[in-house]
């Protein structure tokens, strides 16, 4: 079989070197004669791995000392509920900035727990229309947004201005893609299955002064204070997923850290967008200033031709290019683990398909 490039939006491809190491260690981790999946999460070896993973992520992402790093379960959807249960205070309401499917879904879930105001910040051209909320943010216990919408391929590169209010970001699809100033956020969270590791574990980075304010009815599994005191092990965590995340963090540090990955990601995205803009067949409908670095959407304008493209691309070893059912078309997810060679292979196939179908 020729090389396969996996453009899945999540679970997404992982670094080949990480998978190779996991394969090598699968039956004999730390010379224990067992796999990492078979040892106690409270045993010496796994506890050392967990502590090192926190240290590596803190170094990799520049996480300040006054932030807690939690490894949780339930995906980003679990956090849609956990956030209002933990962060709502005396004001009793939150502001949700919606720019696509996932930010709107987060707002819908939060309404089960509190009064939510919602402001749509994207127009019909998939352009972000407003990011300054300093005049109203003080009314709310927190302001929530999603910097990268995987379905529509819309990314918000500037951090919203919320004054002194607590800013919460769902970074499931762009965490560790570029350098950011963590101190601008009260909380960042992300499902692992795009840039961090496999599905099954969720990272939450929370300013410590925000922990310990959960409502009494909050289940202990979702209480940030309970999780913090238990080192994210109030129950048995998904140990294999945690192990793989730990390998990814170490791999990224060895590769040059976020400065290097930010450079690679910018080159991959610009290369693909440049071709799409020059194409007579394919187009991208997102405003240029808000085009996602991680999820590149494109269409031919003909649903039948889109389906033909996806089928032929799959046969050619370019997998998972079908767009989300909400929007259709195509989507190339080019997360950290996608090499430039994968983008170049996709462009070569797109050029061939264009020649044959225009």
UniProtKB/TrEMBL annotation:
One of its GO terms (biological process) is L-serine biosynthetic process. One of its GO terms (cellular component) is cytoplasm. Pyridoxal 5'-phosphate binds at residues 76-77, 102, 150, 170, 193, 235-236. Its cofactor is pyridoxal 5'-phosphate. Keywords: Amino-acid biosynthesis, Aminotransferase, Cytoplasm, Pyridoxal phosphate, Pyridoxine biosynthesis, Serine biosynthesis, Transferase. Residues 4-346 form the Aminotransferase class V domain. This is Phosphoserine aminotransferase.
């Amino acid at each position: 079989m020729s090389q396969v490039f996996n453009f899945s939006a999540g679970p997404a491809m992982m670094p080949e070197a990480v998978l190779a190491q996991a394969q090598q260690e699968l039956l004999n981790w730390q010379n224990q004669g067992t796999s990492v999946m078979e040892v106690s999460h409270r045993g010496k070896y796994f506890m050392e791995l967990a502590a090192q993973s926190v240290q590596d992520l803190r170094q990799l992402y520049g996480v300040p000392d006054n932030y807690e790093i939690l490894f949780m379960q339930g995906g980003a959807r679990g956090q849609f509920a956990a956030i209002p249960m933990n962060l709502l205070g005396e004001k009793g309401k939150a502001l949700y900035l919606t720019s696509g499917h996932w930010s709107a879904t987060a707002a819908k879930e939060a309404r089960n727990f509190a009064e939510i105001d919602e402001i749509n910040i994207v127009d019909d051209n998939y352009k972000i229309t407003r990011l300054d909320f300093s005049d109203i943010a003080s009314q709310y216990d927190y302001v929530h947004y999603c910097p990268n919408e995987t379905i529509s391929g819309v990314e918000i590169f500037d951090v919203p201005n919320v004054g002194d209010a607590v800013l919460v970001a769902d970074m499931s699809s762009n965490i560790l893609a570029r350098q950011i100033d963590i101190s601008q956020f009260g909380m960042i969270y992300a499902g692992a299955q795009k840039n961090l590791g496999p599905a099954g574990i969720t990272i939450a980075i929370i300013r410590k002064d925000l922990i310990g304010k959960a409502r009494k009815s909050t289940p202990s599994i979702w209480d940030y204070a309970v999780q913090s005191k238990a080192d994210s092990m109030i129950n048995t965590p998904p140990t294999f997923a945690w192990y793989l995340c730990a390998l990814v963090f170490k791999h990224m540090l060895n590769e040059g850290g976020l400065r290097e990955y930010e450079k690679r990601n910018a080159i991959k995205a610009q290369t693909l967008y440049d071709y799409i803009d020059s194409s007579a067949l394919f187009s991208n409908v997102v405003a240029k200033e808000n085009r996602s670095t991680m999820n590149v959407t494109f269409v031919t304008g003909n649903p039948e031709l889109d389906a033909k493209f996806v089928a032929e691309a799959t046969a050619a070893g370019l997998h998972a290019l079908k767009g989300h059912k909400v929007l259709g078309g195509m989507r190339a997810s080019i997360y950290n683990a996608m090499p430039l060679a994968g983008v170049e292979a996709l462009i070569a196939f797109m050029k061939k398909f264009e020649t044959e179908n225009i």
